[in-house]
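Hey, sorry to bother you again with one of my protein questions. I've been staring at a protein lately and its backbone has me curious. I owe you a coffee for this, so here goes:
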Amino acid sequence: MWAQRFLRRSARQLKTFSRQISARIVNETNIEVLEEIDSRPLTFPGVWLRDNCLCEDCFHGSSKSRKLDWDNFDTRIRPAALEANELTKEVKVKWSDRHESSFSLEWLRARSFQEERQEEYLREFYRPATRHWSGAEFQEIARHFSYEEVMAQDDVLMQWLQALAVYGVALLRNAPLDEGVVRRLAERVGFIRRTTYGEEFVVQAKPGAQNFAYLSLPLPLHTDLPYYEYKPSVNILHCVVQTDSPGGSNMLVDGFHVADILRRDHPEDFERLCRVVVDWNDIGSEDGREFHNIWRAPVICLDAEGRYTRVNHSVPQRDSHFNVPLAEVLPWYESYARFVRLAIADSHAFKTRPGDVLTFNNIRLLHGRTGYDDSAESPRYIVGAYLDWDIIYSRLRVLKRRLGAGALKGGCQ
């Protein structure tokens, strides 16, 4: 687990003060640093080290920003001489341009070009590795936290955000029954993401509703606001009043898990849903302001390395414009139908109670709601808001750096 690895790494760092270090120039361009004879050498490109010089002329300390003059930067720079200081555990470099740099062993080790170290950094600090799950595993993966503890204790705040990053869902219990909960929770992390529908929004049956969610009819599985280029990342839903009728249950499914099934069992459908661009739209008005939002994107979105970045799905908010070749239309519908059927079959339903705050990854999980009877005697009142992953990841990194590995407990490392 990340915590144990971090502690072992810290212990090793303490031991380095009794180790010998050496440095040498390799192939005229690289620098190799060796902590002791039997350890693996750390090799660094000279051009990268010169670019990352930490002296006052090259680096602005208070803003932690590079200020090197790249208009005149020489990519053919070479290390001319090295000095490994045993006492300070630093490597000093004299360059071919007569500049001098100094790098601590700790700084170099944290930025090692060794593949396993880079993978560890990307997996555990940059963005925690996700774990995809089936509906049958929901009770196993769903983490529960006390709202008051999240608000008062930084270690619990970190555990909640880590669970959200890994599993895409977490539930907070025993929140006060007032409309300010979602704002206070969002501001505990950073700030609310504003959308067409404002900052906080209320999910309840409304006459003349401008959004399908504001009906008491069954709400099909979907992701919110697929018609935004930069879609709100995390949904916060605070149950203030829950209907006594049999309906009103939340439905959740891991869209990345459904994509995994398609990739494994139906590769042609997977490829098509990753490739064919769909028009998503939303037309209406809110608080007297008209809007017409459109964004074009596939159902399954991948990054340059083939990893999922987001899933888009909303039957009500898929535009009637479908700007694809005629021959693509029927095959796409067949692939999309398979995706929807798989998602419905794998969804997990449960009913929140007053004081519950359901938080989930809106660019990964599909969510819906069973229909319910709306009446004055049996109302349903949910207050919602959004957070963005950029804000969450930033807060999580700050907490990890400040609190250390020991604060991450409960199996979300």
